[in-house]
Task: structure prediction
Amino acid sequence: MVIKTENINTFTLNTIDPDHIGLVVFDLKDDYSCLQHLHLTNRRSFYTVIYLISGTIQLSIDGYLSKLECQQVISFGPGTQLQFPIEKEQKEGWIVLFEKPFVTARYNDHVLHHFNFLKKQKAEPQHVPFSEGLGLSMILETMQREYAYKHPDAKDILRSYLHIFLGTLGRSIFPEAIVGVKNEKEEKVLSFERLISEQYAKERLPSFYADRLFITTNYLNRLCQERRGKSAGQLIRQYVLLEAENLLIHSCKNISEISFELGFENVSYFITFFKKKFGVSPDGFRKNNSKI
Result:
């Protein structure tokens, strides 16, 4: 069942643990408090990795239903809307939450883009082979102990373990999502996607983003086609439509309010824009998804 709110809240790590150091590690076998915070509809300001060893978790990620099962891992970046019901079923596994500055305090700003699996738009669970699961569990057990110990040197040690953990995931579980550190084209597209997330409600023209990236609009389109299989304009519209879906499913705002929030000049244009993609009006889409 979808939980509707007037506004979709943004959760920070302060909500999870006021004493966090930029990273939080939970052992699901011993501590369910993290799930109690994360189950409500929210956008997060941090990265999330869930590795489930036993049990199942029903997830709604940006309005798309998914099911995390035993020996599976799933990850997603900031801004993703996450919702799942609290279940009494015993679970074993780990949840790792971390903020970008926690990583970039040691490594450069591009290091997280190397682990592209953290930001896939539609995150899907991936199977963890038994042999790899043993190694991941050892890393996570060490991280959880270090996190709970709260030693003054914990930040530096945990940064190193987090980098090893993400590297292991990228190499063994998400090899197709690894991005070369020196891949300038991919970094340029990632910068474009970050700008979209910040400016989509005000700026819809690819030329605006091309200017901000110090490249031509034609070159931006070529990069997007090469790296994402879509034009720059299509990626912008895709982001706007995803935000529209999230607001229609998870918020109590009316169509006019949503249209204004997304930067449309009038409601009729928003309805036409939405219906062209989904074949149904925003109101019809909301009704069709009200029982999810």
Observations:
- The CA atoms of residues 209 and 215 lie 9 Å apart.
- Residues 184-288 form a domain with the Arc Repressor Mutant, subunit A fold (CATH 1.10.10.60).
